[in-house]
Amino acid sequence: MNYANIVTSLPGKKSERLVERRENIVPKGVSYGVPAFAETAEGALIKDVDGNTFIDFVGAIGVMNVGHGHPKVKQALHQQVDQFIHTGFNVMMYESYIELAERLARLAPGEHDKKVLLQNSGAEAVENAVKIARKYTKRQGIISFSRGYHGRTLMTMTMTSKVKPYKFEFGPFAPEVYRAPFPYMYRRPEGLTEEQYEDFVLQEFRNFFISEVAPETIAAVVMEPVQGEGGFIVPGKRFVQGVYQLCKEHGILFIADEIQTGFARTGRYFAIEHFDVVPDLMTISKSMGAGVPISGVIGRKEIMDAAEPGELGGTYSGSPLGCRAALAVLDIIEEEGLNERGEEIGSIVMNKFQEFYQKFDCIGDIRGLGAMCAMEIVKDRGTKEPSKELTNLIIKEANKRGLLIFSAGVYGNVIRLLMPLVITDEQLQEGLTILEKAIEVAVVSFKKDCLVNA
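The chain above was modelled as a monomer; its predicted structure follows.
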């Protein structure tokens, strides 16, 4: 049985008409991947309006860890709709907000007392973490990292590293935001071991406090435990712990941005657990609500209480629907063993990536943590020159065969996989087989085009 089933060209006739309508009414600044419109989705499969079925290795960019339309999520949402849809937590409170906050506090790293603020989106969570850090420390400066991604609002866009498409011509940006170096093992200088390179980048971080900004002016350092949009770049434990220790030495808060890495994606509830670091604040969203907008900030009680009543919140923040969906997600992760499944999927994918690496010399690097896996596409393994063009061709070939994949990285040359963790072994293997075929066909086509254009 094949799960992927493409019965029309892409886009099909119905999707083609919808694309035309989209072009007339939706700004071109809103991008899209595959030229198709969803009709139904379940688990790791999406069916479009033309009858094409896709295996989903994107998961709405890391949102669908528990899969599309999980019965427990749908049941929770139906129950909530029957009770009430929204009252505004700052007007008339509801128990699900409290219950979710309590459960998140218990799951978050550290035995200290914690409090939880709920919001709508990942960017809002980061914005509020920054506000809280500044309020608590009475400092203004914020440090993020090269290749980091934190959102599209003014502050989070400022903190984000990649210029195009996120920042180009959208300035001026927010003040008092600084960008520090972050280790990129694949592109480390020749002659350095991974350990030496980590030590080198950590020393550069120390020097940052001498050459760029005084540490006593910095409220917080914000780090993705695994860089998402930056290309699924996994730092070493030495680096993460070294940065954490420097924060402690200088009274700087350490904020872990877990928006893409959280909720079993890396085989743990939160990726920072792999590094034996307990953050002062942590931002969460994406797979937290299984597609219903919700986000949060989890932090030390004394830090979270720095803001006065009315200084935090929002109209839809921690909505009843979002809270009920998130509670269902936590039940699913526990009951279905999705942390363990995340590790298992990661092992299967990385083993297959090893085979790809031996077969295709366009793959320069394979990397990942748990089920957050990626491969970097290059023109030449020796020079490591990125190949965005070939990457896009691989994605297009995969889409044509019924597999949804997506790119990442500052060079746009990283293929990242974020399949739902409820994907079956058969669906996973079929998707990987399609990906292998897509690479094979794309490489041949790419080489032909290069010869023609030479």
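Residues 425-453 form the longest helix (29 residues).
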